[in-house]
Design goal:
The chain is of the alpha/beta class and 432 residues long. The protein is built from 9 helices and 27 strands. A hairpin with a 3-residue loop joins strand 26 and strand 27. The longest helix has 38 residues. The model has no long low-confidence stretch (mean pLDDT 88). The structure holds flavin-adenine dinucleotide.
C-alpha cells in the first residue's frame, strides 16, 4: 500500500473494533481507498459476553477468531501490541514491546502514525480501590483471565473431589462479588458445570457452594424489579446464596469481608462489580475523560480531537433523554462500529459525520441451561418482558449478529453447524 493513503488506526479488536475494521476493510481497504490497521494486545478475538462461559469451561478455544486471518480476508492489516501512549500533535501512538512467555523481546517498542484514530480498547474491572481485590480476586476482563479462572476451577474441583472422602471435607466455595449480569450469568453457568461434573463422576453439586455478594438491595439493577426478583427466586432454588445489601470492604487470601462485619470464606473469589476504562487512558495527551477514565465523545463519537474517535466500553457517549451515558454493552459497541464506519467513509469524502443514537433493544440475562430472562424494547410494543425459550433465542441472536458482522451470513451458518457437530463428539465442558 502506498504511504499517501489515509491511514486509519483502530486500537482494540473487541466487540466494536473488529467489526469496525472488517466493515472499513470491505468499504475502503478492498478498493485501496485507505490503509486500515487494527492493533490489539492479543492475537485472537473472542466475543467478551462469552467469557463467563469460557471461565466455566462450557465454551472453548474454538470460538476464537484469529486477527491475522480476519485481516487477510477483509483487507485490513493486523498489528500485535499494546498501546501505551499518544502524541496528538504528531498524530502518533506508542506501542509497548511484546515479549514471549519466556521473557524474550519479540517486537520492540513501536510508533504508528495515523490520520484517523479510533480507540476501542474496552474496559477493565473496577476494584474501586478496595483492599486486597487486585491481589486475591479473579477477573473476567480478557480471554487469558477467563482461561486462568477455568484452570483454577478445574484444579479446585479435582482437589475437592480428592478430599471428598476425608473426615474434614468441606465444599468448594466460590464467591462472586457483583450481582449484575456478569455475576448472575457466571453463577448459573458454574452451577450447571457442577451438575455436569457430577454426571461425569465428580462430586455432587451439593459439594460446591456458590455465593453472590451485591451492594444493592437487589440483583440486576439494570432490569425491571419483577425480572430481578424472578432471577433471585431462580438462583435461590439452585441453592446459590445471595448476600444482598452487602458492601465489600476487603478481600484476603481466604475470605471476603463486608462492611457489617461478616466474613465470607471462599476458595475462589471473582470480582465482577463494575467497570472502568484502563487507568493509562485518564487524561491521555489532553483527551477529555470522565471519572471512570472513559474518553468523552460527542454524538458523532468524536473526542475533543477531531481526528480521534472512541467506541464501546472506553467511550463516554451521551444518551439524550437519559441521566446516564450509553451503557457499556456489546449491543452498543456493535451499533457504534456501524455508525462510525459510515462517518469515516463520509470523512474521507468530505461529507459530515453521522450522529449516533443508541437503540436499546433490551437486556437479557442467561441463567445457563435453567432459564433466560430479560426485557425487549420495541417502538411499537413498548417494553416487553420475556423469558424461557424465546429469550434464549434472542440472547443467542446477539452473538450471531456479531458473527455475521465479522464473517458474513454464509460463514456464520457454516461455523454454527460445525460447532454443533463438534459438540456432539466432545465433553460439554472443558477439563484441561
Ligand atoms: C462476562 C461478561 C458478560 C457480558 N455479557 C453481555 C451481554 O450479555 N450483553 C451485552 O450487551 N454485553 C455484555 N457484556 C459487556 C460486553 O462484553 C462489552 O460491553 C463489550 O465487549 C465492549 O466492547 P468493546 O469493543 O468496547 O471492548 P472489548 O470487547 O472488551 O474489546 C477490547 C479489545 O481491546 C484490546 N485492548 C485493550 N487494551 C489495549 C491496548 N492498550 N492496546 C491494544 N489493544 C488493547 C483487548 O485485547 C480487546 O480485544 C459482558 C461482559 C462480560 C465481561
Amino acid at each position: 500500500m502506498s504511504d499517501n493513503k489515509h491511514k486509519i488506526v483502530i486500537v482494540g479488536g473487541g466487540a466494536g473494533g473488529i467489526e469496525l475494521a472488517t466493515r472499513l476493510g470491505s468499504k475502503l481497504g478492498r478498493k485501496g481507498l485507505a490503509e486500515i490497521i487494527l492493533l490489539d494486545a492479543t492475537t485472537t478475538h473472542i466475543w467478551k459476553p462469552l467469557l463467563h462461559e469460557v471461565a466455566a469451561g462450557t465454551v472453548d478455544e474454538s470460538e476464537q477468531v484469529d486477527y491475522l486471518g480476519q485481516a487477510y480476508r477483509n483487507q485490513f492489516r493486523f498489528r500485535l501490541g499494546k498501546m501505551e501512549g499518544l502524541d496528538r500533535e504528531k498524530k502518533e501512538i506508542y506501542v509497548s514491546p511484546t515479549f514471549s512467555d519466556s521473557g524474550e523481546e519479540l517486537i520492540p517498542r513501536r510508533t504508528f502514525s495515523y490520520d484517523t484514530l479510533v480507540m476501542a480498547i474496552g474496559s477493565v474491572s473496577n476494584s474501586f480501590g478496595i483492599k486486597g481485590v487486585e491481589k486475591n480476586c479473579l477477573f473476567l476482563d480478557s480471554t487469558s483471565q477467563a482461561f486462568k479462572f477455568q484452570k483454577h476451577l478445574v484444579e479446585s474441583y479435582i482437589k475437592s473431589h480428592a478430599d471428598a472422602d476425608k473426615a474434614n471435607k468441606k465444599p468448594l466455595s466460590i464467591a462472586i462479588v457483583g450481582g449484575g449480569a456478569t455475576g448472575v450469568e457466571l453463577s448459573a453457568e458454574l452451577h450447571e458445570v457442577t451438575d455436569m461434573l457430577a454426571v461425569y463422576g465428580f462430586n455432587e453439586s451439593s459439594n460446591v457452594k456458590l455465593t453472590i455478594i451485591e451492594a444493592a438491595p437487589q440483583l440486576l439493577p439494570a432490569l425491571p424489579s419483577k425480572l430481578a426478583l424472578a432471577t433471585q427466586d431462580q438462583l435461590a432454588r439452585l441453592n446459590i446464596d445471595l448476600k444482598l445489601g452487602c458492601r465489600v470492604v476487603e478481600v484476603t487470601k481466604d475470605a471476603i469481608h463486608t462492611m457489617d462485619g461478616e466474613t465470607i470464606q471462599a476458595d475462589l473469589k471473582v470480582w465482577a462489580a463494575g467497570i472502568k476504562a484502563p487507568d493509562w487512558v485518564n487524561g491521555l495527551d489532553g483527551l477529555a475523560t470522565n471519572k471512570i477514565n472513559q474518553l468523552v465523545v460527542d454524538e458523532t463519537l468524536k473526542t475533543n480531537d477531531e481526528n480521534i474517535f472512541a467506541i464501546g466500553d472506553c467511550a463516554a457517549c451521551p444518551w439524550p433523554g437519559h441521566e446516564h451515558n450509553v451503557p457499556p454493552r456489546a449491543q452498543a459497541a456493535h451499533q457504534q462500529a456501524s455508525a462510525l464506519c459510515k462517518s469515516i467513509v463520509n470523512r474521507l469524502n468530505g461529507q459530515p459525520l453521522v450522529n449516533y443514537t443508541y437503540h436499546d433493544y433490551g437486556s437479557l440475562v442467561a441463567l445457563g441451561k435453567y432459564s433466560t430472562v430479560g426485557n425487549l424494547m420495541g417502538n411499537l410494543m413498548g417494553t416487553v418482558t420475556i423469558g424461557g425459550f424465546i429469550a434464549r433465542v434472542v440472547y443467542l441472536s446477539l452473538y450471531k449478529m456479531h458473527q455475521i458482522a465479522i464473517h458474513g451470513y454464509y460463514r456464520t451458518a457454516l461455523l454454527t453447524l460445525s460447532n454443533l457437530f463438534r459438540r456432539t463428539a466432545h465433553a460439554k465442558i472443558k477439563m484441561h
